[in-house]
Amino acid sequence: MRRLLWVMLSMGALAAGLVASAIWTMPDTKASAGLQSTPPPTNTPRPTHTLPPTSPPTNTPRPSPTHTATATATPSPTHTPTDTPTATPSPTPTLVGPNEYPENFNPLTGLPYPSEDARNRRNLIVKVSNFPEVVRPQSGLDKADIVFEYEVEGGVTRFAAIYRSQGTDFVGSVRSARLLDIELVAMFDALLAYSGSNEWIRQYILESDWKWRALSPHLGVNCPPFCRYPQEGKAWEHTLFGNTYQMWEVAEERQVNEGHPGRGFAFSDVPDPNGEPAVDIFIDYYNKRQDTRWQYNPADGRYYRWNTGLPHIDAETGKQLAADNIIVLAAEHIDRPDIYESETGSTVIETVLWGSGDAYVFRDGLWYKGTWWHAQGRTGLWLTHAGSDAPIHLKPGQTWVEVVRPFMWGVQVANERADMPATSAAIYATQTQSVIQTATAIAPYITPTPFAGTPTPVNLP
């Protein structure tokens, strides 16, 4: 199946290349929005064209609730549906985006802003850890409009959660910034909240024109909004949590909390035609202790997340993480031997998420093969159908974006669900899930150890 998948994707990449040649050579006749005057570091060529911008609105203050740390929730996997979804055409679909949106609509979700505060504040990216296993379950990911998952050193992943519609008074654990975050700041014209970074990235941010949008204890922003919550069995670096409302307050004080609109995503309450059925998405990273799976549930039209064979839950709610859309983006990953990551002492990975590449979009149990487009250092991420400039319409709601290596390396798509409740039950029963309590991030890459006392998941209908 994977070989067939690669063949289809290779053909899609050829078509995408032809479209790219046409788009990137068009003259840029309008002023750019969200332009970053300090280009991010790279050792690869970058395109220079971007799509037409829009004008930003203004901003107002917002509330600042507080949080008391809560106990870790017990995993509770939710859905094991078996029927095959189909798209039901609607005579009057509601279309939003990709370059213009109604005044009160959030370009991250395709839905109206739930409040004036949400409309008037800036997109906020918060870096959240996903490794080692002791950091799970995380807090606050369920409140994000968009979550990017991407590879870092050692073949494990980290999250960049983007907040606008909702905030959370407890998100984390908060971890360090990577090179890709620099591009995401420009892509979403966002604030960036993180624990710290290697010296190279720190100096780059300090010299950038958006340095006041960087919120980190590494740059003097401490408690609040970033506070430590020590917990027995967790190393110090896994104890930092944040409050997004207080982060927006800091941005307000710095006068950088403008509610700029984004652009690029298109939304429709009706799926595009010609989608192919797909209910199981598996991403196999090269680290044996890191894989990701999403399974579609037709009962509520959402995708539910599994991490390394276990249901991935939110620590605050105890519910399994879910999304309305899953986007998979293929991008070149390049080793940067001139930059080392202080956490691991290993070479930094640069993810080339500019230009264009292959994309899969999953919604309503269907998938679409297409192309992603992003001009380096500028606002916007566009998704178009393969060989066309027609936008792929997302389902209004929350989205997770999975960034993988070229040709969708490690991605398997199926119209039958793997029996994940049975898989997770076997892991709990044999107690072989590796959860290491360590003071460093490099040790788990080397010597996995068993973890005892993991709860048994609830039997599903």
Structure, described:
By secondary structure, the chain is α+β, with helices and mostly antiparallel strands. The protein has a single domain (about 1-445), classed as YerB-like (YerB-like fold). It has six helices and 27 strands. Strands 4, 5, 6, 8, 9, 13, 19, 22, 23, 24 and 26 form an eleven-stranded mixed β-sheet that branches. Strands 14, 15, 16, 17, 18 and 27 form a six-stranded antiparallel β-sheet that branches. The longest helix has 23 residues, at about 1-25. Residues about 1-90 and about 430-460 have low confidence and may be disordered.
Quick summary:
It is built from 6 helices and 27 strands. The protein is an alpha+beta fold and 461 residues long.
Tell me the count of domains.
Answer: 1
CATH class (first level) name: Alpha Beta
Which class do the helix and strand fractions yield?
A: alpha+beta
Anisotropy-based shape? globular
Total number of helical segments?
6
Note poorly predicted spans.
Answer: 1-91, 432-461
Rg from alpha-carbon coordinates: 21 Å
Mean pLDDT: 77
Main sheet record: 11 strands, mixed
Oligomeric grouping of the chains: single chain
Q: How much strand?
A: 25-35%
Predict the CATH topology: YerB-like fold
CATH-defined superfamily = YerB-like
The count of DSSP E runs of length 2 or more, i.e. the number of strands, is 27
CATH architecture descriptor text: 3-Layer(bba) Sandwich
Distance between the termini: 29 Å
Helix content: 10-25%
